[in-house]
Amino acid sequence: MSFKQNTKNNFPQWPIYDNNEINALSDVIKSGNWWCGFPGGHHGENLWKFQKEFAKLQEAKYCIAVCNGTVAIESALMALEIGLGDEVIVSDYTFVASASAVIATNAVPIFCDIDPETLVMDVNKIESLITERTKAIIPVHLGGNPVELDKLKEIAIDNDLYIIEDCAHAHGSRYKGKRVGNWGDAGAFSFQASKVITSGEGGAIICNSNDLADIIYSYIDCGRKKNAYSYAHYSYGSNYRLGELHAALLRKQLEKFPEQHNLRNKNAQYFGNKLNEIDGIQVMKLTPGTEECGYYVYPIVFNPNKFAGITKKEFYSKLNKKKIPTDDCYPPLHRLDCFKNIVLRKGIDYSNANWGGEKSNDNCFPVVSDIYSRSVEFPHELLLASKNKLDSIVEYIKSLK
Ligand SMILES: Cc1ncc(COP(=O)(O)O)c(C=O)c1O
């Protein structure tokens, strides 16, 4: 193993770093080039190199780095001119950012229930959510597991909708021969502290259209244009640039990624086979056609009846007491106070949304509500553990029956 494991209680800890990261940061500091500059005038070199390197990893033509994954989604939506009066279909089982980015554009997210086995957006439920206002779909590849992107693309083409893939969990995921993020119009990534490639905070958008890349660049850099005078601002934009120090760190994390990614994929298969043998445990099933998975998290669904009726909180607390890193999964979006009580943007009409008040009842989102009540997740770094360690988790779970 060429990357050095950082372990506590014999389980790998995240982040994993060594002198390469420390020296890269020190080099930027000593260079005095602490700012990347702008598309028309580069200062530091790390941001511009990182964008090329990340685009190469994800097999996309363009990459625009930004300061986090939330604004990555927002920037893609803004560049595609999604806004007031528009609806965007989003998976209900995700981190709040997949939908709050839609709110930021003044559009309305519409929540889609999930498939009970793959735990990602059920594409068969999308068409019933499409209205004359629908402009885009945000598939979220939860735990790196790709949404059924070929079917989703057909639906998008038939209904003239954009696709912005939320790839915050899916660095390196590949579905039917193509990396995620390239199936639709844009793919949005996060490099926040817990992500599989990280600089503490950070994000990126990938796309394959030169025109769209230019619009995104403008939006994230104050309305500037590539190769133009820096005090010329041609359109509305904000400053969502990523810092040069973050980019230097990311370039070193990127070097470690392929080996870690391969190990996660190998171990997930090993661990998953063993866990699935336990009556009452179901691991997230990879969507058929998945060739590689980013595995930001590894969710499992347990059947309380096979574990003497314990709640999921009791289930993951027991694992945590044994120092096995395990956590709750995301509460479904329809349950979050901001959506349930509609504490959102002033002046926007959310009355057509499929959430809020009574519409946020769990029985309107039956699959995700059931799955959420029974699912827990392991962090990706657990999949870097030795087989013996993974075996010990399987044995401990068996002992809870
Ligand atoms: C599915 C998903 N989308 C978007 C984001 C937002 O990324 P960030 O925290 O970098 O803003 C996250 C962050 O965890 C996420 O899990």
How do the strands and helices of this protein lay out in sequence?
Elements: E1 7-8, E2 11-12, H1 19-31, E3 37-38, E4 41-42, H2 46-58, E5 62-66, H3 69-79, E6 87-91, H4 97-104, E7 108-112, E8 134-138, H5 149-159, E9 162-166, E10 174-175, E11 178-179, E12 186-190, E13 203-207, H6 210-220, H7 244-276, E14 281-283, E15 290-292, E16 297-302, H8 312-321, E17 327-328, H9 337-340, H10 366-374, E18 375-379, H11 387-399
Parallel strand pairs: 6-7, 6-8, 8-9, 9-12
Antiparallel strand pairs: 1-2, 3-4, 5-13, 10-11, 10-15, 12-13, 14-16, 16-18, 17-18
Helix pairs in contact: 1-7, 2-7, 3-4, 3-6, 7-11
This protein binds pyridoxal-5'-phosphate.
Residues 68-70, 94-95, 97-98, 140, 166, 168-169, 190, 192, 203 line the site of pyridoxal-5'-phosphate.
CATH level-1 class of the largest domain: Alpha Beta
- Taken from the alpha-carbon principal axes, the silhouette is globular
Number of continuous helical runs: 11
First and last CA, distance: 35 Å
Please report which band the strand proportion falls in: under 5%, 5-15%, 15-25%, 25-35%, 35-45% or over 45%: 15-25%
Count the domains: 2
**Helix-strand string:** EEHEEHEHEHEEHEEEEEHHEEEHEHHEH
Main beta-sheet strand count, sense and barrel state: 7 strands, mixed
The total strand number stands at: 18
**Which structural class do the helices and strands define?**
alpha+beta
Q: Would you give the CATH topology of the largest domain?
A: Aspartate Aminotransferase, domain 2
Bound molecules: pyridoxal-5'-phosphate
Q: What order do the strands of the largest sheet run in, or round the barrel if closed? A: 5-13-12-9-8-6-7
Question: Uncertain spans, ≥5 residues at pLDDT below 50?
Answer: none
Oligomer: single chain
Based on the coordinates given, report the CATH architecture of the largest domain. 3-Layer(aba) Sandwich
CATH superfamily name of the largest domain? Type I PLP-dependent aspartate aminotransferase-like (Major domain)
Average the pLDDT over all residues and give the rounded result: 96
- Work out the helicity level: 25-40%
| Rg (CA only) | 21 Å
